[in-house]
Structure formats: structure tokens, C-alpha cells
Write a structure and sequence with these properties.
It comes from Capsella rubella. Probably involved in translation. There is one protein chain. The chain is an alpha+beta fold and 113 residues long. It contains 4 helices and 5 strands; from the N terminus they run H-H-E-E-H-E-E-H-E. The protein has a domain of 79 residues: SUI1-like domain (Translation Initiation Factor Eif1), CATH 3.30.780.10. It has a 5-stranded mixed beta sheet, with helices on one face.
Length: 113
């Protein structure tokens, strides 16, 4: 048995380096813009990951006025506050957030279809 014990390598964690790299990469906060299909041709655009110090209601008011659509701010237990807009507004929202200076273009992730 002692021969087998000496041949078994010590505990090696192949993901140890990856976890260290992910912790630094995780500090980069992304804004996720998603589209959800409702019924038929109807869809819903969600925006999450904006900084906490921003006023979500003021951003929503500007988005609604700019894109002529309705929307709301929903409080989610896991994701925090999420902005919901009617229709597929992914491209519009991303350009709006960049032009308003709220988010850099590199920090936006667009999901869906």
C-alpha cells in the first residue's frame, strides 16, 4: 500500500488559476440587454446591471420618451432592479446608454435571437 500512496499525486486543482483570473475579470460590470418573446410577435426588452447609484426611474422615463414605448422598473430578488421595455429595443437601448455616457460600449452585452 505504501507504494500506491507514493504514486498518487497530491491534490491538484486544475481550476485554481482560472478562479484567480475570474475574480479580477468579474469586477468588470456588464450591462445585459435581453429580449424575451411574449405571445405572437410581441416581445419584451430587459436591461440589467446598471450601477446602483443611477436613478432607474429617470433613465426609464428618458427611454420611454425617446423610443415611444412603454416600460417599467421591476425589483428582482437575484438581479436587483431591472428595466423592462415593450418591443425589441436592444440596439436602441445600447446606443442610448453609450451616448448618454452611462456605460462604455465594451461593457454592454446584447443577448437574444
Amino acid at each position: 500500500m505504501s507504494e500506491l500512496d507514493s504514486q498518487v499525486p497530491t491534490a491538484f486543482d486544475p481550476f485554481a488559476d482560472a478562479n484567480v483570473e475570474d475574480s479580477s475579470a468579474g469586477t468588470k460590470e456588464y450591462v445585459h440587454i435581453r429580449v424575451q418573446q411574449r405571445n405572437g410577435r410581441k416581445s419584451l426588452t430587459t436591461v440589467q446591471g446598471l450601477k446602483k447609484e443611477y436613478s432607474y426611474t429617470k433613465i426609464l422615463k428618458d427611454l420611454k420618451k425617446e423610443f415611444c414605448c412603454n416600460g417599467t422598473v421591476v425589483q428582482d430578488s437575484e438581479l436587483g432592479q431591472v428595466i423592462q421595455l415593450q418591443g425589441d429595443q436592444r440596439k436602441n437601448v445600447s446606443t442610448f446608454l453609450v451616448q448618454a455616457g452611462l456605460v462604455k460600449k465594451d461593457n454592454i452585452k446584447i443577448h437574444g435571437f
